[in-house]
Amino acid sequence: MNEFRSRLERERPYLLRYASLQLRDPHAAEDAVQETLVAALAGEASFAGRSNLRTWLTGILKHKVIDAIRRMSRETAADPDTADFDALFVENGHWADPPQAWADPDASLEQSRFFAALQACLERLPAKTAQAFMMREHLGLETGEICKELGVSTTHCWVLLYRARMALRECLEKSWFKDR
Amino acid sequence: MKITCKEASRLVSRGLDRELGWGERARLRLHLAICEGCANFSKQMQFLRKALSRLAEQSKP
């Protein structure tokens, strides 16, 4: 095994974590990482001279992840999630239970337990909702690109993002902020 | 021109994904000024974005 190859192998756990977070499917994550490492091995020459191996690999992995999301969304064309948030509002459009201010949220950002709670909440989102949300907030894509990748209308895209935010807010409130 | 909390919450979310029109922005601002629940909601949405970008930073090299 040459030296470049073993340097690539050392990045595998990191890449796997990154891909799992985006894809939430261990097999799809494995595949994306494998494809990335194969591409990296074939493209060793194009890495030459770059300073950071991990950054370069993450760049390749991003594209593999997007490909995987595209494949997955084709396979699950119909979004089974129709959970409605109408229950949160009373008939006249006001909150049934108005949001209360969260106590010192910025302090939570310093706690690793907070991020564990956030991850747990993300994992509870329905697949497509989570994909749209992660593409927006984690990969920083624009809504137009997200709709295209997921093959849904712009309106549907906004609804997915709205649902994700509403669900995360509720989940974090219950699992983290309630007892603070 | 008044909007409900439900509409306000949608506009808050949408405002994170595209620039709101002048009218939308004005109606939302007016609503947030008088509705504590929605003002809290709006702050929580800003916080959520911040938390996610922190999470993304953590998984960066």
Helix count of chain A equals 9
Q: For the record, what CATH class of the largest domain in chain A applies?
A: Mainly Alpha
Q: Helix- and strand-based class of chain B?
A: mainly alpha
Tell me about the largest β-sheet of chain A.
Answer: none
Strand segment tally of chain A? 0
| Total separate domains of chain B | 1
Task: List the main descriptive attributes of the protein structure presented here.
A: mainly alpha, Rna Polymerase Sigma Factor, Chain: A, Arc Repressor Mutant, subunit A, 2 domains, 9 helices, globular, B: 61 residues, mainly alpha, 3 helices
Q: What features would you describe in this structure?
A:
The complex is a heterodimer of chains A (180) and B (61). Chain A is mainly α and 180 residues long. Chain A has helices at 3-23, 26-42, 44-47, 53-75, 105-108, 112-123, 127-137, 143-150, 154-177. Chain A starts with a helix and ends with a helix. The model of chain A is unreliable at 77-83 (pLDDT under 50). By secondary structure, chain B is mainly α. Chain B has one domain (5-56). Helices cover 77% and strands 0% of the residues of chain B.
Summarize the helices and strands and which ones pair or pack.
The complex is a heterodimer of chains A (180) and B (61).
Chain A: H1 3-23, H2 26-42, H3 44-47, H4 53-75, H5 105-108, H6 112-123, H7 127-137, H8 143-150, H9 154-177
Helix pairs in contact in A: 1-2, 1-4, 2-4, 6-9, 7-8, 7-9, 8-9
Chain B: H1 5-15, H2 22-34, H3 36-58
Helix pairs in contact in B: 1-2, 1-3, 2-3
